[in-house]
Specification:
Length: 364
């Protein structure tokens, strides 16, 4: 247990532990701590052109994030890459000792990212070096979320950790009893995440103790999204669930024809998610009624992002799709040379996304 108020007050003084503790872009996987996947920035509703393409030398399962002066992307070669958003040229790269499949969270000039070398890193974007690294006992594929000076992240060692963002000290750990690939979502006083053991947990943000758990009975790769007092999650059982945020009771479930490894986006009473069956679905957030579906030609593992009334999502059929959020109609699509597993990032009229062969694209 820790005093969160004292921690926040301490961070407000910006101690010298974080040299670049200055105002700047806050960005992370799924756009915000509740993981709604809704971006408060404009995206291209019509495809004009490929702005640039950057290549890493290994496979990419991480998703890009667009910070103030860099697009960050992890690669299986062990590096976190920082790419200039205007030119598409490499600005710098940071080396870990394992695959970087985690997606970075950026707060006040510090990028927090996990690696398969069993560590969570805090990387100063200005100094381009590690401020601290936090050890776990398993690979960290989970993407961290940062709220009020605390980093929350899962590990394949079966724990979710709360780590002081300032100095990398452990505040608490929760024993999930199974590996955690899912990225935690934070809403008010609770942290929500799924496990490979098939449970969705709600954990007290201050104490690190279980509030409730929901047994989905199949592995959960998907990361939860929280909105309107519900937690939305996909499972390997081919289901999308809506769970009451207070009680942990299921409110509705909807079946797809394939496992749901994609993470849902929640926008305007719509839950939008991809499935291994090759479809992108929109469900009514209140009762689960299917509103529309859009067929791609391959499994959809990518997590949709919503901006400018448009759903951006990748497919293993090698295309990035831009769909209307209301009806799921195709606005445009862009073909790459390989499968797309990662989630897009949108900023200032540009959508950034990666294909599994290591290519990072900027479309405007």
């Amino acid at each position: 247990m820790f005093n969160r108020q004292l921690l926040i007050a301490g961070l407000a003084t910006c101690s010298i532990s974080l040299a670049s503790c200055v105002s700047g872009t806050t960005t992370m996987f799924r756009a915000d701590p509740p993981h709604t996947g809704v971006v408060d920035s404009s995206g291209p509703t019509e495809m004009d052109k490929l702005k640039w393409k950057f290549n890493t030398p290994d496979k990419v399962y991480s998703s890009p994030v667009a910070a103030d002066k860099a697009v960050l992307l992890g690669s299986n070669d062990g590096y976190l890459y920082a790419v200039d958003p205007e030119s598409g040229l490499l600005s710098w790269k940071f080396r870990t000792d394992g695959n970087v499949e985690s997606t970075a969270a950026v707060v006040d000039g510090i990028a927090y990212v996990g690696s398969w070398d069993n560590h969570l890193y805090a990387v100063d974007l200005k100094a381009r070096n590690s401020v601290w690294k936090f050890p776990t006992k398993g690979p960290v594929s989970s993407s961290p979320v940062v709220v009020d000076g605390v980093v929350y992240v899962g590990s394949e060692d079966g724990h979710v950790y709360a780590v002081n963002a300032q100095n990398g000290s452990e505040l608490w750990r929760f024993d999930a009893k199974a590996g955690v690939y899912s990225s935690p979502a934070v809403y008010k006083d609770h942290v929500f995440f799924g496990t490979m053991g098939g449970y969705l947990y709600a954990v007290d943000i201050n104490k690190g103790t279980e509030y409730w758990s929901f047994n989905a009975r199949q592995k959960i790769h998907s990361s939860p999204a929280v909105a309107d007092d519900k937690v939305f999650i996909g499972t390997d059982a081919k289901l999308v669930h809506a769970i009451n945020i207070r009680t942990g009771q299921e409110m509705w479930q909807k079946k797809t024809a394939g496992p749901v490894l994609s993470s849902p986006a929640v926008y305007d009473d719509r839950v939008i998610v991809g499935s291994k069956d090759g479809y992108v679905y929109s469900f009514d957030a209140g009762n689960g009624t299917r509103q529309w579906e859009f067929r791609t030609e391959g499994p959809v593992f990518s997590a949709p992002v919503v901006a400018s009334g448009t759903v951006y999502v990748g497919s293993t059929d090698t295309h990035l799709y831009a769909l209307t959020v209301k009806h799921g109609n195709l606005r445009w699509k862009y073909r790459t040379d390989n499968k797309i597993y990662s989630s897009p990032a949108v900023k200032d009229g540009v959508v950034y996304f990666a294909s599994v062969d290591g290519s990072l694209f900027a479309i405007q």
